[in-house]
Amino acid sequence: MKHIWSIICEKSSIDFETNLLSIFSCLEELKLVIDETQVSKTEKLIIPVNFQIVSFWSIENFSQDTSLEIKGELLDPQGTVLNEFQNTLQIKAGVKRFRNRTNVQGLPVTKSGRYYFRISQKDKNKFIVVANLPLDIDLSYKLLENKVVQN
C-alpha cells in the first residue's frame, strides 16, 4: 500500500452516487487571540476546533484482502508529541484505491510556531513516516474586555 497524499481540512464530503470526494476549507494556518486573564501562557491549551485529516492510498496488490495500520501524531514546534491516534483499516480484495478521513476534535497547542501532523504507516513491525503536514499556529495573548452597554 502506498500513501499518495494527505491534507488537513475543516471538513470533507463523499457523494454516495458518484463516490467523488469534496474537500472544504483546507487548513495551513490558524491565528488565535486568547484572553490573557483566562489562561496561563506556559500551559498547554486545547483549542476548540474541529477538522479532518484526509488521506489517499494506492493499493498495489489488490487481489487479496489487506489491512492498513496508520498512526497520526501532532508535534509542537519543539518536536514534542502532543497527541496521537492509531487506526487499523480493513480493505477488501479488488479495491485499488482507498481514502480515509480522520476526525479531530480539539487542538492542543503549547506556543506559536509550526506544528506538524505526522502520518505513519505500519510496515512489518514498525511505523514508517509517509507524510508531515505543517500547520502554522499564531497565538496572541491580549486583555479582552467584556463591556456591557447600558441605555
Characterization of the model:
With 151 residues, the protein is an all-beta fold. It has a single domain (2-141), classed as Sandwich (Immunoglobulin-like), CATH 2.60.40. It is 0% helix and 68% strand. The protein is built from no helices and nine strands. It has strands spanning 2-14, 21-26, 29-35, 45-58, 66-75, 81-91, 97-109, 113-123, 126-142. Strands 3-9-8-5-6 form a five-stranded mixed beta sheet, with no helix packed on it. It has a four-stranded antiparallel beta sheet with strand order 2-1-4-7, with no helix packed on it. It is elongated, with a radius of gyration of 19 Å. The chain starts with a strand and ends in a 9-residue tail after the last strand. The mean pLDDT is 91.
CATH topology: Immunoglobulin-like
Largest sheet: spatial strand order: 3-9-8-5-6
> Could you give the distance between the termini?
66 Å
User: Mind telling me the CATH class?
Assistant: Mainly Beta
Secondary-structure-based class equals: mainly beta
What is the CA-based Rg, rounded?
Answer: 19 Å
Name the overall outline.
Answer: elongated
Characterize this entry briefly.
This protein has 151 residues and is mainly beta. It has no helices and 9 strands. It has a single domain, classed as Immunoglobulin-like, CATH 2.60.40.
